[in-house]
């Protein structure tokens, strides 16, 4: 890819569009902006810009298009696949200053936001008004723009779905600087090809989203959580299809192992209700009818006990539930605190999750590499982490590559997919290409070329 390097004249032009306080030169760029959470991939941009509105983003993209300079959009940098890394240098465009909640429309149950709004802040704001934004990925410091561009899922996906299900409209700046609008506050739309759906999950390769219209739902009045210990992870996950077949719909069904749980409790410095069992399921139920919720959790409890659960602990206060779900949300950070790691978030049919977990245990022995996992048992999305521990770099890279190759191959064999919610970017590109085959890859490349014929927007990612 032959891009132009940034010159002094380019810097002056960008300062005219913004101002000197929102343009950071290479020598002043923090190391944090050379990587995302895929820590081993480090590339510095030549320049950082921080626009505050759509018009500034459009001017930056027109300038970059005219000068053939690559642009990489970046939110909080919490991605796990290298999506926010400026692989070709150029301009790193931060959306974090575009952090306004523009409107919460209580009559239409919608919210309009800029892409730099932090998920946690947004969720608190709408909760205070009696509403809920259902997507609930583990990384609460991520931006809503980042969530949209990776189609983030999370721990409520079993009942409520993923980010795509809550995006009603967008304002988008295309790579040439043109601005388009899709959707809006309408709840139905069958008006031609869905540019909006192409944008969701595109990881910043097709356009820069500058405003998002999101669907809200009324906040459920009641919620409770079941913590269910099992003798093995295989028994725990093997119970999930029976829970689903019992015709109940939990808000979420999560799984975790004792070793990872203990790491999280140490990391948070919090006591957990029970840490004695080798493996656990977490089930959450919510709704407005207390009796209906109780009926559902009693059915779930009976299914689990019939499948050799040690016990069923009921957390029915906000404090108890917060401890459990805060711990679940800290599992990844706890693993990162003890070892360098790599991640795989394959998704497989729900009834194959237990088989896949068994397969990872065999891989551990085969390659002598620790693999730890947790994830969304209710939707088949596994979060698997290979741990470097005290291995030297060469041994780590060799073993890790071998394990990753087998994990993705097993996912294909089980009719699964490369990523459930973390995206592709750099880290999973070769596995995506193997998974979708040459015809589908060519179609994706055609879409990229239509939106971005110069390939200046987040080049080197996905396709």
Automatic annotation (TrEMBL):
SUPFAM superfamilies: FAD-binding/transporter-associated domain-like (SSF56176), FAD-linked oxidases, C-terminal domain (SSF55103). Keywords: FAD, Flavoprotein, Oxidoreductase. GO terms for molecular function: FAD binding; oxidoreductase activity. Pfam families: FAD-oxidase_C (PF02913), FAD_binding_4 (PF01565). Residues 41-219 form the FAD-binding PCMH-type domain. This is Glycolate oxidase. Its cofactor is FAD.
């Amino acid at each position: 890819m032959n891009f132009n390097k940034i010159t002094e004249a380019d810097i002056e032009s960008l300062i005219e569009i913004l101002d000197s306080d929102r343009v950071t030169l290479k020598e002043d760029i923090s190391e944090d902006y050379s990587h995302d959470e895929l820590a081993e991939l480090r590339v510095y941009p030549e320049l950082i810009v921080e626009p505050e509105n759509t018009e500034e983003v459009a001017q930056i993209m027109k300038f970059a298009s005219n000068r053939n300079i690559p642009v990489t959009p970046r939110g909080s940098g919490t991605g796990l696949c290298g999506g926010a890394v400026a692989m070709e240098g150029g301009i790193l465009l931060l959306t974090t200053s575009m952090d306004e909640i523009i409107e919460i429309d209580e009559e239409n149950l919608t919210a309009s936001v800029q892409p730099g709004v932090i998920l946690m802040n947004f969720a608190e704001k709408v909760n205070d008004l009696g509403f809920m934004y259902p997507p609930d990925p583990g990384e609460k410091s991520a931006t809503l723009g980042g969530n949209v561009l990776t189609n983030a899922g999370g721990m409520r996906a079993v009942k409520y779905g993923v980010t795509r299900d809550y995006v009603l409209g967008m304002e988008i700046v295309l790579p040439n600087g043109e601005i388009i609008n899709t959707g809006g506050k309408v709840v139905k739309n069958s008006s031609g090809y869905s540019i909006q759906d192409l944008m969701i999950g595109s990881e910043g390769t097709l356009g820069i989203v500058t405003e998002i219209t999101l669907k809200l739902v009324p906040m459920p009045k009641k919620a409770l959580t079941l913590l269910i210990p099992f003798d093995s992870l295989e028994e725990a996950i093997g119970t999930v299809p029976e829970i689903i077949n019992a015709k109940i719909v939990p808000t979420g069904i999560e799984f975790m192992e004792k070793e990872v749980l203990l790491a999280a409790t140490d990391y948070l410095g919090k006591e957990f209700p029970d840490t004695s069992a080798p493996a656990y399921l977490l089930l959450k139920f919510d709704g407005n009818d207390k009796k209906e919720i109780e009926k559902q959790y009693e059915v779930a409890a009976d299914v689990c006990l019939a499948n050799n659960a040690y016990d069923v602990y009921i957390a029915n206060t906000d404090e108890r539930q917060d401890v459990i779900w805060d711990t679940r949300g800290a599992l990844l950070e706890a693993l990162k605190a003890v070892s360098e790691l790599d991640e795989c978030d394959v998704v497989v049919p729900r009834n194959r999750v237990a088989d896949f977990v068994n397969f990872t245990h065999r891989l551990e022995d085969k390659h002598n590499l620790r693999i730890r996992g947790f994830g969304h048992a209710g939707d088949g999305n596994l979060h698997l982490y290979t741990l470097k521990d005290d291995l030297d770099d060469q041994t780590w890279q060799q073993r890790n590559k071998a394990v990753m190759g087998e994990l993705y191959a097993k996912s294909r064999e089980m009719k699964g997919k490369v990523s459930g919610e973390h995206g592709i970017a750099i880290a999973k590109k070769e596995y995506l290409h193997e998974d979708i085959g040459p015809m589908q890859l060519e179609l994706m490349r055609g879409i990229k070329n239509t939106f971005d014929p110069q390939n200046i927007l987040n080049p080197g990612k996905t396709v």
